[in-house]
Amino acid sequence: MKIKSASDVFELLGAYVPSAVLGSSLELGLFWKLAEKPMTADALSSELNIPLNRCRYWLGILLNLDLLQLDNGQYSVSEAASASILSTFSQDAWHNIASQSADSYPYLKNLSTAIHEPGDSLAAQGMDRKSYFQYLKEDPERAKKFTRMLYDFHQPLAGNLSEAINMDGVQRMMDLGGGSGIMSNAILKRSPEVLSTLVDIKNVCQAGKEIVSEFSTADRISYFPADFMAEELPKGFDLILECDVCVYTADLFKKLKASLNPGGRLVIVDQFAPESGAVPPGRPLAWGFIGSLEDPDFAFPTAAEVTDLLLKAGFQIRSETQLPDNWLLIDSVSD
Fold this sequence. Notes:
With 335 residues, the chain is α/β, with parallel strands linked by helices. Helices cover 47% and strands 18% of the residues.
């Protein structure tokens, strides 16, 4: 919202409340419950085990956000919620997205002090912030929800990527960090001679195997559990795909080059920042700000920065292809 008056300032200072209310409603499955049948505040209070007055305020905030509607004392899902929530991702995916957002709340509590810290402002406040990668390594259930969320989230991209990627001469591909299998499945359906090895951490691989078992391409997809930044990778691939993994270092690219056959290709797909210090279109500005609280030099990479790292690691850029929704495909070959 744009500030036009003191009342707008008051409203924005309390914006964390509607944010938390929305997050909790996603985690509790409220919209899916009301999509099945409209319910009164009393009925929701009883079924969700929320004190009645608290439940009424909670529902009132969602009404003000135009996510619910109220008719004859019964709450139901609004057209806005149906279009933006129910018709986009699954209930499990939204649950995971909401819980990830809630994880960041504590780090903003003392922002007026933390914002001055020249280093890691979270550590300066005595906070031990785990990366989401660490959570996934430690918690199989969280990894399962995360993997299923990415499967839902990446459905449109998988179709667009499978149409755009050149698979000529490829027999074996590595899908780096592609645990859900959604990209490999889409590509293999169009390339029946290709075999894919998915490299991801153990918990994500276990979750991905459940998803992949439902695919017609399941017999051509295998898993290699590994932390690809720290552990050895398999070798002998004609192509490596790194799609929405967002990890780009010269050391990683050299490591991937060693896993490729002579003349093999590394294909990167991501939403890149339009310029240094900017946020990629389609990604929340808040992600950049929260990242900067832990690392003051945090920045989303630009496509130019990534291609420069590829060149230094011994790759040559074959092509760059713009995909829908601001995804860019960078196709490179090892020299």
